[in-house]
Amino acid sequence: MMLKGAAKAAPFHLQTSEPVGASRPLPHDRVEKMTDAQVHRVRFEPVGIEMEVEEGETVLNAAFRQGISLMHGCKEGQCGSCKSKLVDGDIELLKYSTFALPDYESETGHVLLCRTHVYSDVSFELLNYDEDLLSRAIAVKAFPGRVTAITALTSDIRLLEIEIERPMKFWAGQYVDLTVGDGGITRAFSMANAPSEATRLRFIIKKYPNGAFSSQLDGGLAAGDIVIAKGPYGTCFRREERPGPMLLIGGGSGMSPLWSILADHIESGEQRPVRFFYGARTRADLFYLDELSAIEAQLNDFKFVPALSDAAGGDKWDGETGLVHEVVSRHLREEKLTGPIDAYACGPTPMIDAVLPILQVNGVEPDHIYFDKFTPAVR
Questions:
Q1: CB-based contacts of 209: which residues, under 8 Å, 6+ apart?
Q2: CA angle 239, 113, 375 (to 5 degrees)
Q3: pLDDT of 121
Q4: Which residues contact 150 (CB under 8 A, 6 or more apart)?
Q5: What dotted CATH number matches 2-135?
Q6: pTM check: above 0.85
Q7: At CA 267, angle to CA 264 and CA 268, rounded to 5?
Q8: Interatomic CA distance for residues 156 and 93, integer angstroms
Q9: Do residues 114 and 60 make contact, with C-beta atoms less than 8 angstroms apart?
Q10: Who contacts 108 (Cβ-Cβ below 8 Å, separation ≥6)?
Q11: Mean pLDDT for each 10-residue chunk of the chain (379 residues)?
């Protein structure tokens, strides 16, 4: 679809958080700038940021390459997180989902930056941006590495550990694209380690039936195998030096970015109330319980609240039961935490969609809610 520039609309500024995909396949994006492509200038309003983009790369990939952190999620035209409005210039949109960009929006000049190629100098109006995110942007790069260990945490969750050749700077809660040595499989996974461990990266990964990447974790990948980590990506990262309570809410492999955020918080020495809610089906699906007990003893005001949605008779479970968003709702009503709350929610899309209204009903400001929707691979 070719579009020409539209008249500039009044600035529209949303500060809501947005999803960050963490288990979907991703293309082998370029990191190094091409030298034989025509280059155009891109300007983003109302922030006044300018950058270069080459014909043949998307606007979002050009931003990643130059360390400009725009709002993003799936990076493949499925979620709408990078939606913006074309002000002027000539562009072409690659194939995208009309769920992310309905026809009535595309007809009024709205675009998805992850699917936009430019063919002239252009201007876009950012509809959703975070000034803190823009100020802390890190350029995306590729980091060759090798597998060091794979450990079973539950029947369907694995801990993948890799060592990369040089340190990677990232914020706690961000993710990378992981590619296995032959380049045939790439998936996005969140780091579980604190950013201080810049060369030894860990990932908590859920196995899916017939998963192209996750199936490699039981016998396919082995210590010494080559992998490439490309990143960092993501907007759901820890915001430092905030005194109010911090909520961590997760399910399944959503533990991975939350574990990174928690580890980074502990290392910082900051003091604030922390409530960690984690949803699982049965007791056998819980892990890191000893480590969490040690953290409870270490931090002044920390509570870990696991919730089982399908507790088996033999579980001998006397903790919380039900879906994790229901448990969060009960605890927030009963505890009545004071001060501005920061909430980080990571896990399956239904869990995120259920917990967001619970947080807002209980007084968490939308611009203090950061979430990471984990979706199955689409190809």
A1: none
A2: 65
A3: 96
A4: 158, 159, 160, 161, 217, 221, 222, 223
A5: 3.10.20.30
A6: no
A7: 85
A8: 38
A9: yes
A10: 6, 85
A11: 38 28 35 63 93 94 90 87 95 94 95 96 92 84 96 97 97 96 88 98 92 90 96 93 95 97 97 97 96 94 96 84 96 94 95 96 94 72
Strands 141-152 and 110-112: unpaired
Residue range 141-233 forms a domain whose CATH class is mainly beta
CB atoms within 10 A of CB 136: 13
Per residue, what are the HEC states of 242-306? CCCCEEEEEEHHHHHHHHHHHHHHHHHCCCCCEEEEEEECCHHHCCCHHHHHHHHHHCCCEEEEE
Question: How far is residue 192's CA from residue 175's CA, in Å, rounded to a whole number?
Answer: 9
Domain map (residue ranges) of the chain: 2-135, 141-233, 246-374
Rounded Cα distance between 143 and 113, Å, is 25
Task: Please name which of 241, 292, 297 lies closest in space to residue 271, comparing C-alpha atoms.
Answer: 241
Whole-angstrom distance, CA of residue 244 vs CA of residue 49:
32
At 145, the amino acid letter reads G
Other beta carbons within 10 angstroms of residue 283's beta carbon come to: 16
Q: Position 31: which residue type? A: V
- Output the six-digit token pair for 289: 């319980």
The distance from CA 277 to its chain's CA centroid, rounded to whole angstroms, is 18
Give me 121's structure tokens.
């100098």
Domain 246-374 indexed as CATH 3.30.450.40: no
* Burial degree of 281 (CB within 10 A; 0-12, 13-18, 19+): middle
